[in-house]
Amino acid sequence: MLAKRIIECVPNFSEGRDLSIIKQITDEIEQVEGVKLLDVDPGKATNRTVVTFVGTPEEVIEAAFRAIKKAASLIDMRKHKGAHPRFGATDVCPLVPVANITMDETVEYAHRLAERVGNELQIPVYCYENAALKPERRNLASVRSGEYEGLAEKLANPEWKPDFGPAQFNPLTGAIAIGARDFLIAVNFNLNTTSTRRANAVAFDVREKGRPLREGNPITGKIKKDMEGNEIWIPGPLKGTKAIGWYIDEYGIAQVSMNITNISLTPLHIAFETVSEKARERGLRVTGTEIVGLVPARSILEAGRYFLQKQQRSLGISDKEIIKIAIKSMGLDDLKPFRPEEKIIEYMLEADVKEKKLIDMSCADFTYETASESPAPGGGSISAFMGALGASLATMVANLSACKPGWDERWEEFSNWAVKGQNLIKELLMLVDEDTRAFNKIMEAYGLPNTTEEEKNIRQKTIQQAMLYATQIPYSTMGKALETFELIKAMVEIGNPNSVSDAGVAALCSRAAVMGAFLNVKINAAGLKNKQLAEDFIQKGNEIEAKAIAMESEILKVVNEKIGGL
Fold this sequence. Notes:
Elements: E1 6-9, E2 12-13, H1 19-30, E3 35-43, E4 48-55, H2 57-74, E5 90-99, H3 103-121, E6 125-129, H4 140-143, H5 151-156, E7 176-180, E8 185-191, H6 196-206, E9 211-212, E10 233-234, E11 241-248, E12 253-260, H7 268-281, E13 286-292, H8 297-310, H9 319-330, H10 340-343, H11 345-352, H12 363-371, H13 379-402, H14 411-446, H15 453-494, H16 500-525, H17 531-565
Parallel strand pairs: 5-7, 6-7
Antiparallel strand pairs: 1-4, 1-5, 2-4, 2-5, 3-4, 8-12, 8-13, 9-10, 11-12
Helix pairs in contact: 1-2, 2-3, 6-7, 8-9, 13-14, 13-15, 13-16, 14-15, 15-16, 15-17, 16-17
């Protein structure tokens, strides 16, 4: 089971004054299901609009293509004037990995989009940053050099043949740069001072560019130069960052304002720690952090885990609790409340999902929903939930062991076990809803038209696909529930002895999860026309069930021995 992959797209359109044109372009984006428009930022002076939207990769590149196509039909580059460099109606279109997708995969999507724009819209396309197909085209400034006015000459130069699309000048659309880059976090660090100069000093201390090397006084001294007359700069420690200091009237404080352009090189929590350290050296203190715009969940979760580790506390707690630690550790709620559902991209998307999830119900509602006339949720979902409960109990024992008085030196050992438990919990909870979706797929397949020969063939093929999926899901539940036994066994043997009975109950839950899921595997496999495949499911299922029964017996024997010895 894979978590949803999310990418961000930030196209820049060469129109910032005519709001009706901007609205027509963003309407194209919003028509694509699975995509959420986050921000539209027009600028009159630049005559440019920066649009931000997110979603699943296929849908995002579809929305991007539609927006680029619409912009090409509405924006006449012959009439464009603005303060910002540009060479096309859609000037740049970067894709940004947000969740569960690598940069390499994002680059592939950028190339797919670029190829389609070049072929179908006949717009010259240059790929830049991580998507660059030539090293010299990695830098956007190089790609866009000469701007729109120099584009005809550029396209005539064989060295600047576009990566996709025709090497011909289209005066209406110009060209486009399509790329892939890391996520950019805009963040302000609040200081206990009103001095812009001191805030700026801290910013210069930390940013990648650093500060100029001066003679004598480091603030007012003459800037030193090398033999060729170039200024000498002392680089700061935070790679991929830009920063300045400023004063904010609204809050009555000075801030270090920073853009983190590469969160892989400089994670948010490292930026916070470094700014805090440099501020202390100057007699200042960071009182909190303000994130401007949105942030990917991984940045906040990484921060929470970092601070938990510094406290020598277990990292095997829920994401909700990890986020709470991050908020308090970096003072994200110093100036105003930090609401994850409004500031974290994945949570914001989740809030828009209209689908009713079983795992979001209360225990009582889930119980009564199961007891209702509806055939789903049924045994498959309940089996997955029992597996999640087994993993939860074992994880609880790991966390109790990590904070047990006198066991301080073992906190990391038990933290590692708890992290494994949390991962199993997430996967099993996902299977709770997925089992019900699998059942619904079967019902939908049986409801397809069944009159013509073609309809019958399509219906039968769809039924078999749905039946296979409905077999695979409980089979996955069996595998994940079996994995919990390693954790349960470890907690029985080395965990907090006062919680050994909880670990025993965990074993009971996980065995029931395996056996219950196997019943669903068997009943659904019986409907498969591929009998060899069905037999494979049953054979492997028997092996998993036998292992689970043996593990439960072994664990309960130790549990009862330990209880008897207390």
